[in-house]
Design a protein that fits this description.
Blueprint: E1 13-15, E2 25-32, E3 35-42, H1 53-67, E4 100-105, E5 109-111, H2 116-122, H3 126-145, E6 149-154, E7 157-159, H4 161-168, E8 171-175, E9 179-181, H5 195-203, H6 205-214, E10 218-219, H7 220-225, E11 231-233, H8 238-249, H9 254-269, H10 272-289, H11 291-301
Parallel strand pairs: 1-2, 3-4, 4-6, 5-7, 6-8, 7-9, 8-11
Antiparallel strand pairs: 2-3, 9-10
Helix pairs in contact: 1-3, 3-4, 4-5, 5-6, 9-10
Amino acid sequence: MSVWSGVVVSDVVSVDGAGPVDALLELEHVRRGGVDIALVRLNRPESLNPVDKDTIAALAWLLETLTSQGADSGADSGVDSGVDSGVDSGVDSGVVVPDAVVLTGKGRAFSAGGDLKGYQSLYRDPERFRRFMDDFETACGLLETAAPLSVAMVNGACVAGGLELALACDLVTMADSARIGDGHLNFAQLPGAGSSQRLVKALGSARASQWLLTGRLYSAGEAREAGLVALCASEEELLEATLELVAQTARHTPLGRAKMKKLISIAENTPLDDGLKLEKDLVFEYATTSHDAYEGLAAFAEKRPARYLGR
């Protein structure tokens, strides 16, 4: 039984295959090399996994549920999904916080983007559209800043909103046959969940301008050459290769990983002089107050495996 099965059982999230076949998301617990991995699949394969308002609301809720530490049972998740899941959004104190979250799509696409037909009504309801954008921001923010390593496993087409989810992740892996790109302008749309900002930071303004203005899709090789993708593999080997990469990367102290993600965010969003000061302050606090920082040194000196506590 999944370590999360007692927390997430609903009509929008299916746990380890248990639950409605038409759940918006599937959640599978994978343990690899001592690392707990939450494998989350977008589950609308017949329509190439659109990132519609209900799917994004469910994803934001799920990520907050999985990554919240020390939350009281029954606490509000902070995400007004508009989806009646029938689930208590609290996190039981005995729930394992995953070391990594791997996001992918079921079927032949990661996500081909937004629900273009649904946008016709959503645009005419500003309150619902704002809620959708806020939920999308929450989901991307959690992928980007929460302690677990976040990985987008791009198994097929990854376009527009799909790209925005991938850009928010720490790492991207990609099937050799997959294609990735922004594509918003192909349908007179604009990115509202971060791709115009994160893509420029990831690729530089000149290369990002090509991606954003042409609307073309790029191969896995091109995306890797651009520095966006950490690993490429055949479609058949992608899951195994991704899990192996995750097991190697997510084995580090969870507290140290969270602090490192904070340092990366500081570097992306802060002038160098200010960033250097913030780095010094953060490292001083971590080195002098955390168990894990000293444990890493002690384990090295004593030639034994480290026993990290995440504090």
